[in-house]
Records
---
Amino acid sequence: MINMSHGLQSRQGVPQSLTIAVIGDIHEQWEMEDNEALEHLGVDLALFVGDFGNESLEVVGRIAQLRIPYAAILGNHDAWYTASEWGRKKSPYDHRLEDRVQAQLDLLGEAHVGFGKRDFPQLGVSVVGSRPFSWGGQDWKNDRFYRERYGIENFRQSAQCIMAAAQGTACETVIFLAHNGPLGLGDRAEDICGRDWQPLGGDFGDPDLAEAIAHTQTIGKKIPLVTFGHMHHHLRHTKARLRTPIQKRHHTVYLNAASVPRIRTRTPLFNPSQSDRLSNFSLVRLENQQVCQVSLIWADCEGNIDEQIPLYEAPSLADVQASSMS
């Protein structure tokens, strides 16, 4: 179980331990009670991986009222009626009168880190955003949208933007926040970014994010965590298992936080007429700027944890020493 108590301060005033809440794909399931739950959990930082809804200004507006440090990136559903010709044809509003993509960006302000970064010097970390509105995969999609919004026309240019943001961070420790994960984490349907629809299998990660991570490692930045969503834990081709939600490569933990749907109800045993709304969050514990624990939790609006599912625990020093001697 993740210990929610805060660690001691280092000599530079940076906490030796941090607890981060990662919020997976929301898909309209966010009320003010979720703000309350997140604030009651007492985390140091919240990270949102996107897909708030189909250009849902209401959901983004609620999140913008959070009273704790946070960063966010917008997902493919957050430009559902804007990014493609197909989406614009289905749009319920007039694009000549409204720009709901820009309205979401305005609501989030500097908290939105897509193609950018947000420094948290008081926590000793900087959050770098990948390409916003990603659909995943190795085919460049929505070229007109990216060209008009960002002046970007391919994966290489996208990677350069992400790398520039990482190079400009104020902190040595960098967390990457993305909607879809990076290429290179496996090509089975059950893998963390694996394709779970026909034709089955294949790595659906983002190549520009993978390139940016590799470059950032070469310039001496520490990357304890890369977190994202998009590829839901519940698989399309089988109910026999869930998607692999976490992976570690070298010193970096990769977390897919897309536990969808993220709301369920609990019926109290002695009061069956009343049911509680439970929200899921992924809690990541960092000690000395390294991930030591990750859990998926279900909590009520007062931050009481109903269920905690361990996903990762770093090996102890004794375990490492024993392994090296065997």
---
Amino acid sequence: MDDTDVPQVAIGDVPATFGDGVVLLDVREDDEWQQGHAPGAQHIPMGDIPARMAEVDTAARLYVICHSGGRSQRVAQYLAHQGYQAVNVSGGMSAWAGAGRPVVRDTGGAGTV
């Protein structure tokens, strides 16, 4: 597999809820996460991924997301090379919000992207 072979999925192909072997892995920075994120997403900033690999479910299907798809593409490639089932979410959280999917804050209120 070369670096371009990580699958891309459109927002419409991403599950609406996560758990039971399906993880939405948000790799944006802390300040981006705090402004708003998908309900049920797991947050590990891109730069922390190598040090926090133990937190990523090795058996899960990983939907990796960032703001627009660039950082998540690199993380999905990295995870795929480590043996994870990772796909990149095309368009990232911008596409997520644009599709009318919920965006929340940790405080429980509505978030922004």
---
Amino acid sequence: MGRYQQYIGGEFTDGAGSTDFEVINPATEKATAALTDATPADMAQAIEAAVRVQDEWADRVATDRARYLSEAARLMHERADHLARVMTIEEGKPIAEAIGEVKYAASFLEWFAEEARRVYGDVIPSNSKDKRIMVIKRPVGVTAAITPWNFPAAMITRKLGPALAAGCTMIIKPSELTPLSALEMAKIFDEVGLPKGVLSVVCGTDAPALAKVIMDDNRVRKVSFTGSTEVGKILMRQAADTMKRLSLELGGHAPFLVFEDADLDSAVTNAIASKMRGMGETCVSANRIYVQRSVVEEFTKKLVARMAPMRVGNGLEEGVTVGPLIEPAAIDKVERHVKDAVSKGADLLLGGQRAATGQGETGYFYEPTVLANVNPSMIITQEETFGPVAAIIPFDTEEEVIRYANDTPYGLAAYYFTRDVGRVFRLAEKLQYGILGANDGMPSTAQAPFGGVKQSGLGREGSKYGIEEYLDVKYISLGGIQG
């Protein structure tokens, strides 16, 4: 795929760096592209460019800002095949899934193009005849986004869409594992004529050094981060000195609850959708599948039967539904979780080892795996696996499984399947998670608020709530009304 450049202050440039880094295709373990490794000086230049144009961008009318988002979304749809191919090559997910992500990513630009027009204020009744109370909303200022590798397009637009709509400039620091999708989107925004400096994309391998420039600069007023809880805590500490506003979408450990009155075929279909999307490398992937004991055998048989034929291979090949994991450390973690579970009594019903694709690839492939009779002593019930492993845990009562589901420091997403309407509402209130899929294994959408509780983060992305993260509320007390 050749050579890429940084996008700094509205210009494609090699930047100040003197060394290159390569982007590795996880299906082949071969370099697919290269670009100059960004330095702190590059990040500082991007911030300076954003500061210079911030006031002008904030003062544009909402319909003008919305136009850039709408045009960019249109080009994303037109170029979906190309963008998806780039994504598959750098991240690994099957091409059909990558096309789905491109369209999902574009939907955030479309949504926030509309929300730009709906940043409303208030007039509040006063206690005094000679005063009026008004509330207006203004952009917070220069913002930054630090995004992960597992959704290299959607995690950007989910942050960039509301920032631009609200009138904020943004610097994006994508994962060094998947910078190409971010730079492809920079090309699109450059083509639609986004004013120079409103967007920069700075790609480098020294993430702490680049993030430090962002966190130390008082002019950057908000940072949105998607990634691990450990890094999120570091950013919280760093944000304290400049009192930056933060949105943090951090780790999860999603429970997937199946009750005996559930539609089991639907539950299995949704479990696979949740578990196997992106090879299980998603923060909302079902990590612990709790099934009521009276139906656990039937559910398990159906799940194994559906997962067994899933084809593993290079995501560019037709018929492949399970691509490679992102890097060697990812496959090592999956192996560790599976070996630990089996050593502690779990039954290995499917998979359980690195996959041979039969197509000559030497990439980071792992077989779709099902473990039965998993128990709380196993690492897989305590840590995110981030891989294609379904861990099935039997339970007896509703009260018991609620306790199991909540027994984690994380609280991003949870799923439950039941025909009992009363139970639907009880669990909605009792499960300690920010996102709940009630008979739905794929709840994410641009118009709904995405985010977690507890150690899964702060703030919300998407929906009408998402743009609020990029707005300051100003109160105006106007006196001298009465003559």
---
Amino acid sequence: MTSKLIPSDPSKVMVIRQVTPNITTCSAPFLRFGRLKIGGRGTIVRLQSGALAVFSPTALTPEVRSVVESMGNKVGYIAALDYEHHIFITDWAVAFPSAKLLGVEGLPEKRGNDNATAGSSFQHVWTQKYKASMKVDPDFDKEFDYEYVGSHANKELVLCHRPDRTLIEADMMFNLPANEQFSRTGEDPTSGIFTKLFIGLQNTVGTAQWQKRFLWYAASAGDRQGFNESAKRIASWDFDRIIPCHGDVIERGGKGIFNKVFDWHLNASAK
């Protein structure tokens, strides 16, 4: 199934970009359900300790390995930021066996039942019950704020790298179209009727009314109060940049865009 979602030769189409001196992104084409052009993005952050934290890892190509080596080659943390972003976890875990694996509840069981992704265990798993007391280690915790949004349908883990004022997330918010992620493919990232419809639903342009509706009526429907509380906690952090897994990086003004998209949840009222 993954052959329908990810490129057969990621090296040819991946865009590797140094966003800040401490943060590098690896952006590649990705087709949700085999047809929606939403793109995929892994993020590598170098901590003050020299350890690297890898979030929603993409394919471990020779070019990505070279970047990891140039950043010190000390991969200390590998994180799947939700229930879906784990396809390449095993490849990274095998390559960097001393790294701590971070994930969300339900994911270890899901991976254990899938021969394509099984073979790695998580040292830290966020759960709704224990999220308030969850800690990773002193080096990680002093640089990251994190909120587990177990009330989201995909069980999201959202982080803020405080030194670079950068929010890192998976499916909490989309910023389509996926221009950067499809920029080396020669394909129009907006082509296809289903992609066009999904872009209309998952963008941050103007009032972002359709993404607000999606978040309110779909993503948070199971536990809207819990979702509202998580959105408020994230909005209290100090960030300017947002690195989503799907769609373009928001280089500046990210806090205002986040507040706009999550306005209904921040005010606990749809409009």
